Amino acid sequence: MSELIPLPQTLIPFLEPYFPNESNTNHPKKPFVTLTYAQSLDSRISAKPGTQTKLSHLETKTMTHYIRTRHDAILVGIGTILADDPKLNCRYPETKSQPRPVIIDPNAKWKYQDSTLRKICAEGKGLAPFIIVDESAGIDSESHNCVLEQGGKYVSLPLIGNTSNWAIILDSLRQLGIKSVMIEGGARVINDLLDFNKFSEKPIIDSIIITIAPVYLGIEGVQVSPSSRVDITDVKWWQGEQDSVLCGRPLQ
Ligand SMILES: NC(=O)C1=CN([C@@H]2O[C@H](COP(=O)(O)OP(=O)(O)OC[C@H]3O[C@@H](n4cnc5c(N)ncnc54)[C@H](O)[C@@H]3O)[C@@H](O)[C@H]2O)C=CC1
Ligand SMILES: Nc1nc(O)c(N)c(N[C@@H]2O[C@H](COP(=O)(O)O)[C@@H](O)[C@H]2O)n1
């Protein structure tokens, strides 16, 4: 039985203008980037570091899976992997192709062989990950074999100490054939990308789709907050049964 529910009819047309399509995925050096996550009213994405907090209502969780159907890849940082042990597949009904999980793990900390993602992939319910590591990282041989056997790969890039490594990461994904990527988190990844003006003249993010849940998580929560102001343009709001969804684009 599916854990998801049918999407309200108004939601797909609401999201559509913010999705990758044939005309906005032609950049030679980067995929189309959608930043999407769920936050509390006090801009927290989990109640405590290192833990997972369910914020989305079933309706907006289903929306997240629909958004996954519309991207070639889903990207998260190693903090999210270690906290959530996520599936990172698409469970939306009648999904034709699965997105590629991409994990930023500079020090190759992830023991892939013990992960839920490995099980999901072994059951044919998702793709094996592309794991982005620093060039200096020592990769555990068991993890390496497991990733390769399932059709994933480790990609070594100059990450550590490199302030413009997002441009390198996104270029590398584009060269691997990924034309669109949905970036889900966690906080370090989101804050970095919103701080684009530190390493890029233009925003790296093309669209943002944020679920806002009616709860305060408090000061111990993991906060999304870039180091300086970011204006959002082309803003639209959708009101669901419990959550609100904001779509927009960072102002250039
Ligand atoms: N509510 C939501 O929608 C979501 C919530 N979360 C939550 O976020 C929390 C995890 O967030 P964080 O701890 O901030 O971890 P994170 O997932 O942002 O990973 C941060 C780590 O990834 C690596 N990394 C990321 N980008 C890098 C780069 N450009 N260069 C080099 N290394 C890079 C570094 O090792 C860094 O310490 C968890 O509690 C998780 O449950 C995560 C995703 C979505
Ligand atoms: N949209 C959304 N709402 C929440 O309440 C969340 N906690 C998250 N977390 C993200 O979803 C990943 C879990 O995905 P699977 O269901 O295991 O595929 C998690 O790792 C976060 O990226 N998202």
Automatic annotation (TrEMBL):
It comes from the Eukaryota. GO terms for biological process: riboflavin biosynthetic process. Transmembrane segments: none annotated. Pfam families: RibD_C. Keywords: NADP, Oxidoreductase, Riboflavin biosynthesis. It catalyses: 2,5-diamino-6-(1-D-ribitylamino)pyrimidin-4(3H)-one 5'-phosphate + NAD(+) = 2,5-diamino-6-(1-D-ribosylamino)pyrimidin-4(3H)-one 5'-phosphate + NADH + H(+); 2,5-diamino-6-(1-D-ribitylamino)pyrimidin-4(3H)-one 5'-phosphate + NADP(+) = 2,5-diamino-6-(1-D-ribosylamino)pyrimidin-4(3H)-one 5'-phosphate + NADPH + H(+). It is an enzyme of class 1 (oxidoreductase). Pathway: Cofactor biosynthesis; riboflavin biosynthesis. Residues 31-244 form the Bacterial bifunctional deaminase-reductase C-terminal domain. Coiled coil: none annotated. Belongs to the HTP reductase family. This is 2,5-diamino-6-ribosylamino-4(3H)-pyrimidinone 5'-phosphate reductase. It comes from Spathaspora passalidarum (strain NRRL Y-27907 / 11-Y1).
